[in-house]
Design a protein that fits this description.
By secondary structure, the protein is an all-beta fold. Helices cover 0% and strands 48% of the residues. The strands form three sheets. A four-stranded antiparallel β-sheet has the order 3-4-5-6, with no helix packed on it. It has a four-stranded antiparallel β-sheet with strand order 7-8-9-10, with no helix packed on it. A two-stranded antiparallel ribbon has the order 1-2. It starts with 7 loop residues before the first strand and ends in a 16-residue tail after the last strand.
């Protein structure tokens, strides 16, 4: 992702290798929500949605319908750094990081409900580096 005051995510197609190739083609520019940077991005299994995680203090998440450059959902995630995000299925994505794991499940048409992952009674919370 990009860092800066108003970061953006640029979705692009690489283009072909032949002599008539025009090179990379910008398909969509997603901007306006995150304020200090975009630290993580993940594609939904069907390729239609994109989740982004911001670098700001609350590490906000945003879900975009990227083809329409439409912001579908936003929420604060946690004050702890988010180190990874991944889609589990078309209706659920996961964010994880320093001492946390959050499952975000579709709740209705456009909202996602956050649930904390539990580490168990005998386990101490610890940094999770990968959501997969």
């Amino acid at each position: 992702g990009e860092a800066g005051v108003l970061p953006k995510v640029i979705v692009w197609a690489a283009g072909g290798d032949g002599p008539t190739s025009k090179g990379p083609e910008v398909l969509s520019i997603l901007k306006g929500f995150h304020r200090q940077g975009v630290s993580q991005v993940a594609w939904a299994p069907d390729g239609e949605l994109l989740v982004t995680v911001g670098a700001e203090g609350f590490h906000c998440v945003a879900v975009y319908a990227w083809r329409q450059s439409a912001l579908c959902f936003t929420s604060q995630a946690t004050t702890q750094p988010v180190l990874d995000c991944a889609w589990v299925n078309p209706a659920t994505f996961v964010t994880c990081g320093v001492n946390h794991l959050h499952l975000w499940s579709k709740d209705g048409v456009s909202a996602y409900k956050r649930q904390r992952g539990l580490f168990g009674k005998k386990a101490n919370p610890q940094p999770l580096l990968c959501a997969r």
